[in-house]
């Protein structure tokens, strides 16, 4: 079993997180705007067929999975996909894996045990620790990510969680939290959009338990979520206000922040364009 530290991947300070794959045209524009990577969520299939079209449409942008679900995508075919992509586009793909949700998997068992078994299979198939990360929220899986992968990709957290995670895993481990954004100065409307995106997770024990550890109480986490809670996990306001909130993750120790734009695909690129300047990104001509 491999338990060596991996060199940190370099995916830039800011990335984009999407539920499902964007188009090649969107990926090219995201690259042009200066974002370093796209994280594709939604538990993609083991063939990872969406990856090559995104890499073909771009020249330096990296693509990561956020995340491959160990229950629905077996390690062996995922490893085959990794090697296929790496051969065609060396150094531009990062494999993010995780255990999903207890409520969605009938055969769900110890996340720690199943992740170790999955990592053993990836080791046997030659997937390097330097090109894989784990979805990690709690201390035990964060420590596992530090030991057996390049780092951690926490989802639906806050800069305070980022600071705690960084202290736990140490300075040499890659840390890339996701954070949701709504570009709107109408706080009530922005919170409504945030609640539509977050409500599903309020029924999932792994997220609820993590939010309790972060100091949110039962009233905060009772559907549809308190204003305090929604404001903590969904950044909204002007582009400058959102950029300041995202920067808090970097100040807390994140290597990269993966930005999930809420409000539909039509809002993706326009929002990222508005954020690019305040985030300090330099678009290409």
Automatic annotation (TrEMBL):
GO CC annotations on file: cytosol
A Pfam family this chain is assigned to: Bac_luciferase
InterPro entries: Bact_Lucif_Oxidored, Lucif-like_OxRdatse_MSMEG_4141, Luciferase-like_dom, Luciferase-like_sf
Example GO molecular function: oxidoreductase activity, acting on paired donors, with incorporation or reduction of molecular oxygen
SUPFAM superfamilies hit by this protein: Bacterial luciferase-like
Protein name: LLM class F420-dependent oxidoreductase
Organism taxonomic ancestry: Bacteria, Bacillati, Actinomycetota, Actinomycetes, Mycobacteriales
